[in-house]
Amino acid sequence: MVFYIDLLIGTPPVNVNVLIDTGSSTFWIDDSACFDSRQCKTHKYNPIDSTTQRPVVHPIVHREYGDGTSVTCTIISDVVSIAGISIPNQTICAASQVKSIESISLDGILGLGPPNSVDPADLFSNLENSLSERKVSFYYDRTVTPINPQLQIRDAGEVTFGVPNPARYTGNFSWSPIVKTDSHWALTLSSVVIDGKTFSSTPIVALMDTGTTIIILDKGTFNAINSAMGGVSVQGVLYELDCTMVSKMPSIQFNFQGVTLTMTWDQQYFVIENQYCVSVFGYSANLPPNMAIFGAWFLRSFYTSFDYTGRQIGFATPVGVVTAQMQPNTHRSIANANMMVGMMSILIANMIALVAII
Q: Where does the record place the catalytic residues (predicted)?
């Protein structure tokens, strides 16, 4: 459950499909020289064929992401068109090699890190000159709930560059400042409260990342929340829930600096194969201590705006009422965890963060 958009690059224009990632800042795409043997899934764009492509004197760039993906690329410049806006001389990292644990096919990643992120291939710094407000906002169609990363559904959401779309939210935004010393869109998570009981009162850094599917917590908070939900640990990184009891789970309150956001029971799990109920709260040993990542499953509950000028993230109520998630067509309770190991291993590998390792 992540965002993909189409861009046009070069002259004549080539259509490419990229993942939008607020957890990183680099804009890279597969170069035509990056073949399948180098793990590139596509190679539509050939810089040599573009009359507007120009080389840029810059060392080879290497980027690594939290899910194990890495990319090696060369900085060039070319014209890029996004949402009808043409950006001449946009720096692009043309990938010559991509390493990924995922089987998903995409042409590249559009990193939209915060203003204090310095990257030679940063699209927003050029795009902002055409915008009346330096913001990027995300709307998710909450009736769409696929967790298969290979499944792309058209028109399942909306990304707005500039002024947030008033047709997509109601009321006012609640804003929380980003952590000033961090190079990510990160907020201070002050506490977590479940059914009136505080489970975590030690402030941690919480990344808001559109490139991650689930919510990845520090180990203490992860175990406390999932235990309160009545779950059974699977490989120590996810919890399976009793499908017959999910509607009785209490709401979870996340207290960020200046903002309190609540997840109701129907926002706390997803269903796979129409029979397994799995908590959206996961754990990764690769995550630094006192850090959490709030991915798309959390962000989809709100209309979220990333403000480059104010260095803050805003949350508003999305327009439209969505019926509580349908429970699976089964009366099964928690399964034997050993039966799920193979399935969950694949699932976990496809949902861990696309956060750039700085």
A: 21, 209
